[in-house]
Every structure is written in structure tokens, then in C-alpha cells.
Design brief:
It comes from Chanos chanos. Belongs to the adaptor complexes large subunit family. One of its GO terms (biological process) is intracellular protein transport. The structure is a single chain. With about 800 residues, this protein is of the alpha+beta class. Among the domains are: about 150 residues, no CATH class; about 110 residues, Immunoglobulin-like, CATH 2.60.40.1230. The chain is built from 32 helices and 14 strands. The strands form five sheets. A five-stranded antiparallel beta sheet has the order 7-8-9-12-11, with no helix packed on it. A three-stranded antiparallel beta sheet has the order 10-13-14, with no helix packed on it. The chain has a two-stranded antiparallel ribbon with strand order 1-2. Strand 13 and strand 14 form a beta hairpin. The protein is extended.
Length: about 800
């Protein structure tokens, strides 16, 4: 058989192929020749054939039939054969194929070989594709080579040990003695791989991390090595752009970050060296910037001094001035992570950050926008909003939605005045109205309604805005609503903030009718416009014109618009005497759902919307697996398990709204707030509004004995009963919670649920602390409406904190005295 062509000739031949098909034909022909050679057990050219096969594998062609040939080469005594054999094993084999287990004995023999280069090949292969079984079998040989004095083998053994630890973490302790002397090595290759090994051990085991911090005193050793690197003179062997071994410096900084995280002593020991690195590293080359970036990350992650953190933020500020886009991006990302903890230090670079909004790179613009919103506060709101609104005008459409939302949030939180707030949001609506969130329209309407002194100014501004542009639908919707509410102020010209405009009733109606017929108007906008025209029937004298417009849309193909028009026609024809009262100006709206983070506090069944920036009350964790623990007040005909849902954003009622436990439980099993003081909120009447806000004890129902509903773990819940004179269908139950243990029960929350045929109201408890040793009781009143006189059933849920541990329990109460419900 003729000698096969050499690898160099094969590469040259393949490169001459003009088409993919021609190349494929060459490869197939050569693969056939290689297969024939393998079948004939040709030992002379096996190494050459496997090398060619590896090249074909790199081109993407199948080469699996050469796996066993790699094992034969590994078993050979020639170094050239072993080298190609191990390379083929690393490329063609992995732990998913059982063939690789046949290599274990060969690798073990080669790890004990007399030649260091053969040992190095075996270490590389094991560190590249060794399975957990191979790692267990060969870990002893790796650990032995890790202790050798040969630097060439130690660095390879350290990397191989990293792979062994990743595959079999329980073998980590085997390598612990070998790590003691690794950092005393002067060879940079050994130092580098040693730091990688120590990093892997610290990341994977908290015990190892604690051991290296305290017993091994690892931080001082790393500080010493890093100091030598910084202070050492020029070393051509390790120099990269004038910096001594930047790769080792970066690895050491990462390990220091892990060691200093959450540890005061370790952080204190590395503060000085981090300051030295930050001040002495050259920033003109990318190598220096990489080291500085790792230094900044380490400073921010450990318990560093405040001055050092300011230095780190100043380094990031210098990065923002760099011409390299990648450096600017990582600087913005890092500043965004630190802005909450070091707000004032980041504020110093505000102008540089705002300049990044003009960058051509979209990723930099997005990060700069997010960071700019994070920097907004009450002191710089005017200047920052000016820059961000300018950005909103000129930015790409993909940014407009997020930018508009950010402006709304910032304006709501830090607005210096209501006029400024209204002007800012109207500016957003006129420039990016089509991109704003769905809740922006009702939120702006609420803001305008509550700003009584700004009504005339606002309606005039909005009227002029829609004369110029009716393409921004949210703007048109808000304008329509305001014109309907305050059209009389617009026509009368009562605006004091700016020069009033002269507008007639017919001109206003012309604009609204134009919105109804415009192709740009959505069905929702038309609904706003028709309602506005209807409201103006009580504010304008042109009632006949309004009647005609409303009657026309009684036959609209839009069902929503048609329904509105029909109802409004009925108002004109049948209920004209009620029309002025129905269409009178809206009262001031209570602030319940905002763009900002409104807190909803649950107080034993009474939900209240608290003001921003109130302190969070003590909370008790609610496990998610008890989501179905309570009965739904409003679900099913009989008893339906409660499904935990998110806290509602509806307002609480002052008159005793029947609260649904279904709506007050957290879907995510989050904390249930403890009782909070009541906040009176004006709302329409609800079912039990006939009752006073205090329990009714008009008539003590004689003969209704008290009952014990719960008695467990020292907590006793007793029920006493009253009957209401005005409505005998209402039973008033007072719970008395007592505690016989030696410690107080804090954060006490009582919840109850009943089947749908009943309706239940929980009033606020007398306290959320049940005193120890029966020294007092917590009382709470429950009102139950039982119109069908059915037997009362109740499920109760008790949550409290005892000696620092949260406790939660459930119980069913089905033995109510008949007198309490008959």
C-alpha cells in the first residue's frame, strides 16, 4: 500500500477546492483511505492518519471512527505518538462516551512516567476531559505531582486539580496540604494556577474559605505577592505593555474579593494594597484599565473604607471619558450597581454620565439613561429632567417607553411644584405620547383633578396642545377628559398663570367632534371625546347641538361608542332632571395607585393604603405552601380554598367594606404586615355601612355561652357573642387572645374566613402583642352577616412571633353555639 499523503499536503489540497461539494469529495476520499489503513493495523502511519483526521474534525466533518486509534497512540512508547493520541482524545472523546474509561490506566502510567513532558500530556488530558470516575481514580497521582519541585508539572497539576474539584467536590480536602507552599513559588505560571485553584476551593466551600482566612493567613500572602508585582522593575518575561504580569494581578484581585467579602479583618488587611494598585496602575493602555476595573470591583465588594470607595468611583468616572466604548459601558454598569450605596460619590460624575446620553452606541445610551434616572433627587430634579426630556425628544423609538416611564416616576417623587409636575408630564405626552404606559392617562387625570388651583391653566394648555397635534392618543384622551370637566373655565378665560385665550363654546365642540371623526382617534379616544361632549351639556348653553351629536352615535358600528350614546340619549329624554347631578364635576380623587411604590398595609382584614416613605411594620413570613389555608369569602357555593394573590391596590373603605381574605393574601408567600394604625379614607358606602365604626353591644344576647376556638402552644382564643338590635342577621363575635407562656407573642395577626353564604368583617385588634403569663388579652371584633340563618363555620389563621421565631397555625371552628347563628 502506498504511503498516505502528509498533513501539510492534505491541507494544501483541500484549500484548492473551489466548491463545498469538491471539498466534501476530497474529504470522503481521504477518510476512505484512512479507514483502510486503520483496518490493516498500519502502525507506521497511524500517527499521521490521526493528525489528518483531527484536521477534518476541526473542519466539521465526522471523525468518531478514529477514537480507538487515539487510545492506541496513547499506549505507544513514542512521544510523538502520545502527543497526537492525547490531542485526539481531548478533541474526539468526552465523558459521555464509555471509550474514555479505557484511557484511565494509560493516563495513570503516564502520570508516573520519568519524562516530564509525557506527564504534562497526561495532566492536560485529565484536566480537559476527565470524568468523575477518572478523577476519583487519578486524584492521588495529581496530588502527588502538585507537591513536586518541578514548576512545569506543578502548574499543570494545579489546573488539573481544579478540574478534579469541579467534578468531585468531596476530594477538595485531599489537595489542602499541597496548597500550603504553592504561593511561596517564584515561578509566575505556578503562582497563577495556584491562585486559580485557591479561588475554586474558596468559591465551592464556605469551610475552605473560613480556613484560608483564619488558619492559612492567605490574605497577607496575596498582598505580599501583589505588592512585589507592583513594585518590581521591568521584567521582559512577564511584561505586558509596561505592566508586570497583569493576568496574575487580575487573578489575585479576584481571590482577594472573595476573601474580603463580608469579613472585616480580611478587608482591613487589603485596603492599603488596593489603594496602591488603584493609584499606581498606568491607565493609558487597556491592560492597566483591566487591572483597575478588577480593583474597583474588589473595593466595592469588600468592607472597604469610605475613602477607598470614593477612589473607586472616581476611577469609574475616568473610565467614562475613555474613547473605548467597552470601557465606558463597564463603567456605567458598575456605577449603576453602586449608586444606591454611594449615591453622593456617583453624583459628582453626573455631568459626564448625562453626556453619555449623546453617545452613538445604543447599549451605552441605555445604561446612561438608567443611571441618570437613579441619580435624580429633589435637589437636581429640574436640571436632570431638562436633560432627560431633551434625550426623550431625540432618542430612538426603542428608548422612548422606558424614558417616559422614568420621567413619570421621577416627576411624581420629586416634583418641586404641581405646575412643574403637570408641565413635565404634558411635555412627555406631546413628544412621546404614543409610547407611555397604559396607566399614565388615569394617573395624570388624577393629578390634574387634585390640583384644584391649576384647573384653568391645565385645560388651556391641553386645548392648545390638541389644536397642534392629535396623533398622540394619551394626550388627546387627557385633553378630552379635562375639556369635559373644565370646559366652562376654558371658555370663561379664567387662567391666571398665563395669558388666557379667547375660545367660544362652538370652537370647543368643533374640536371634540373633530376627534370623533378623525382617523387618528382610537375607539378609547372616541369614548373620551363623546363623554366630554356629554359633560359639556351641563356647562355650555349649546345643549341642542350636543343632543344631535350624541344621537348620531346611537347607531355607531363601535359597540362601546354606541352604548355610551344610547345611555346619554336616555339621560336627555327620560332622566333630564338627573343629568346635572350625574354630570357634575368630579371630586378630588384619593391617591391609591401611583407610578411610585405605594405601600398597601393589611391590618387583620382591613386594608389601608399608607403614605409613601412610611416605615414598614414588623412582618411575619407566610410560607407559600399554605396558600390554600383560608376559605374564600366570595368564591363558590360552599367552601373554596383561598388562593394567595398579590396585595390589592384598591382603597380601603372607612365604613367597613367586607374585605376578602382572598385579596389580602400574598401570592408569593411574602410577609404579611402587622397591624397598622387606621387611615380614614372617603369612599362610597358599602354593605355594612349602617353599622358604626365601633362594635355594637346594644343587646347582650342572654344565653349565648362563650366558646374556646383555639388552645395550643400556650395561645388561647375565646369567642364571646353579641347580637345586633338593628339587624338580627348580624352576629358580633369578640375574640379574646391570651398567652400562658413565659414570653410575649409579638406581631400577632388573626385572620378568618367563612363560606360565601356569609359575609365577614374584621375590625382592628386592640394590640399586636399578646402579653405573657396571662397578664392581658388582645381583643378583636368580627361581624358576620348571616342572612340565610345557616350554621356558622369558620377557618382561622394565626400568625405571631415567639422568642424571635415566626409561628403560623390554622384551625377550623365548626362548633358555634346554635344561638349565635339561628
Amino acid at each position: 500500500m502506498p504511503a498516505p499523503i502528509r498533513l501539510r499536503e492534505l491541507i494544501r489540497t483541500i484549500r484548492t477546492a473551489r466548491t463545498q461539494a469538491e471539498e466534501r469529495e476530497m474529504i470522503q476520499k481521504e477518510c476512505a483511505a484512512i479507514r483502510s489503513s486503520f483496518r490493516e493495523e498500519d502502525n507506521t502511519y497511524r500517527c499521521r492518519n490521526v493528525a489528518k483526521l483531527l484536521y477534518m474534525h476541526m473542519l466539521g466533518y465526522p471523525a468518531h471512527f478514529g477514537q480507538l486509534e487515539c487510545l492506541k497512540l496513547i499506549a505507544s512508547q513514542k512521544f510523538t505518538d502520545k502527543r497526537i493520541g492525547y490531542l485526539g482524545a481531548m478533541l474526539l472523546l468526552d465523558e459521555r462516551q464509555d471509550v474514555h474509561l479505557l484511557m484511565t490506566n494509560c493516563i495513570k502510567n503516564d502520570l508516573n512516567h520519568s519524562t516530564q513532558y509525557v506527564q504534562g500530556l497526561a495532566l492536560c488530558t485529565l484536566g480537559c476531559m476527565g470524568s468523575s470516575e477518572m478523577c476519583r481514580d487519578l486524584a492521588g497521582e495529581v496530588e502527588k505531582l502538585l507537591k513536586t519541585s518541578n514548576s512545569y508539572l506543578r502548574k499543570k497539576a494545579a489546573l488539573c486539580a481544579v478540574h478534579v474539584i469541579r467534578k468531585v467536590p468531596e476530594l477538595m480536602e485531599m489537595f489542602l496540604p499541597a496548597t500550603k507552599n504553592l504561593l511561596s513559588e517564584k515561578n509566575h505560571g505556578v503562582l497563577h494556577t495556584s491562585v486559580v485553584l485557591l479561588t475554586e476551593m474558596c468559591e465551592r466551600s464556605p469551610d475552605m474559605l473560613s480556613h484560608f482566612r483564619k488558619n492559612e493567613k492567605l490574605v497577607p500572602q496575596l498582598v505580599r505577592i501583589l505588592k512585589n508585582l507592583i513594585m518590581s522593575g521591568y521584567s521582559p518575561e512577564h511584561d505586558v505593555s509596561g505592566i508586570s504580569d497583569p493576568f496574575l494581578q487580575v487573578r489575585i484581585l479576584r481571590l482577594l474579593r472573595i476573601l474580603g467579602r463580608g469579613d472585616d479583618d480580611s478587608s482591613e488587611a487589603m485596603n492599603d494594597i488596593l489603594a496602591q494598585v488603584a493609584t499606581n496602575t498606568e491607565t493609558s493602555k487597556n491592560v492597566g484599565n483591566a487591572i483597575l476595573y478588577e480593583t474597583v470591583l474588589t473595593i466595592m465588594d469588600i468592607k472597604s473604607e469610605s475613602g477607598l470607595r470614593v477612589l473607586a468611583i472616581n476611577i469609574l468616572g475616568r473610565f467614562l471619558l475613555n474613547n473605548d466604548k467597552n470601557i465606558r459601558y463597564v463603567a456605567l454598569t458598575s456605577l449603576l450597581k453602586t449608586v444606591q450605596t454611594d449615591h453622593n460619590a456617583v453624583q459628582r460624575h453626573r455631568s459626564t454620565i448625562v453626556d453619555c446620553l449623546k453617545d452613538l452606541d445604543v447599549s451605552i445610551k441605555r445604561r446612561a439613561m438608567e443611571l441618570s434616572f437613579a441619580l435624580v433627587n429633589g435637589n437636581n430634579i429640574r436640571g436632570m429632567m431638562k436633560e432627560l426630556l431633551y434625550f426623550l425628544d431625540s432618542c430612538d423609538p426603542e428608548f422612548k417607553a422606558d424614558c417616559a416611564s422614568g420621567v413619570f416616576l421621577a416627576a411624581e417623587k420629586y416634583a418641586p411644584s404641581k405646575r412643574w409636575h403637570i408641565d413635565t408630564i404634558m411635555r412627555v405626552l406631546t413628544t412621546a405620547g404614543s409610547y407611555v404606559r397604559d396607566d399614565s392617562v388615569p394617573n395624570l387625570i388624577q393629578l390634574i383633578t387634585n390640583s384644584v388651583e391649576m384647573h384653568a391653566y391645565t385645560v388651556q394648555r391641553l386645548y392648545k396642545a390638541i389644536l397642534d397635534d392629535i396623533s398622540q392618543q394619551p394626550l388627546v384622551q387627557v385633553a378630552s377628559w379635562c375639556i369635559g370637566e373644565y370646559g366652562d373655565l376654558l371658555v370663561s378665560g379664567q387662567c391666571e398663570e398665563e395669558e388666557p385665550i379667547q375660545v367660544t363654546e362652538d370652537e370647543v365642540l368643533d374640536v371634540l367632534e373633530g376627534l370623533l371623526v378623525s382617523n387618528l382617534s382610537t375607539p378609547v379616544t372616541r369614548g373620551y371625546s363623546l363623554t366630554a361632549i356629554m359633560k359639556l351639556s351641563t356647562r355650555f348653553s349649546s345643549v341642542n347641538r350636543i343632543k344631535k351629536v350624541v344621537s348620531i352615535y346611537g347607531s355607531s358600528i363601535d359597540v362601546e361608542l354606541q352604548q355610551r350614546a344610547v345611555e346619554y340619549n336616555a339621560l336627555f329624554k327620560k332622566y333630564d332632571h338627573m343629568r346635572p347631578a350625574l354630570l357634575e364635576r368630579m371630586p378630588i380623587m384619593e391617591k391609591t395607585a401611583t407610578n411610585g411604590p405605594t405601600e398597601i398595609v393589611q391590618t387583620n382584614g382591613e386594608t389601608e393604603s399608607s403614605v409613601l416613605d412610611t416605615k414598614h411594620p414588623a412582618t411575619v413570613p407566610q410560607p407559600a405552601n399554605q396558600a390554600n389555608d383560608l376559605l374564600d369569602l366570595l368564591g363558590g357555593n360552599d367552601v373554596v380554598p383561598v388562593i394567595q394573590t398579590a396585595l390589592p391596590t384598591k382603597p380601603a373603605s372607612a365604613g367597613g367594606e367586607l374585605l376578602d381574605l382572598l385579596g389580602d393574601l400574598s401570592l408569593t408567600g411574602g410577609p404579611t404586615p402587622a397591624p397598622a394604625p387606621s387611615v380614614p379614607i372617603s369612599q362610597p358606602p358599602f354593605l355594612l355601612d349602617g353599622l358604626s365604626s365601633q362594635p355594637l353591644f346594644n343587646d347582650v344576647a342572654a344565653g349565648i355561652p362563650p366558646m374556646t376556638a383555639y388552645n395550643k402552644n400556650g395561645l388561647k382564643i375565646e369567642f364571646t357573642f353579641e347580637r345586633s338590635n338593628p339587624n338580627p342577621n348580624i352576629a358580633v363575635i369578640t375574640i379574646h387572645a391570651s398567652n400562658s407562656t413565659e414570653a410575649d407573642m409579638t406581631d400577632f395577626v388573626f385572620q378568618a374566613a367563612v363560606p360565601k353564604t356569609f359575609q365577614l368583617q374584621l375590625l382592628s385588634p386592640s394590640s399586636n402583642i399578646v402579653p405573657a403569663l396571662n397578664q392581658g388579652t388582645v381583643t378583636q371584633v368580627i361581624r358576620v352577616l348571616n342572612p340565610q340563618k345557616q350554621q356558622l363555620r369558620m377557618r382561622i389563621k394565626l400568625t405571631y412571633t415567639y422568642k424571635g421565631s415566626p409561628v403560623q397555625d390554622l384551625a377550623e371552628v365548626n362548633n358555634f353555639p346554635p344561638q349565635s347563628w339561628q
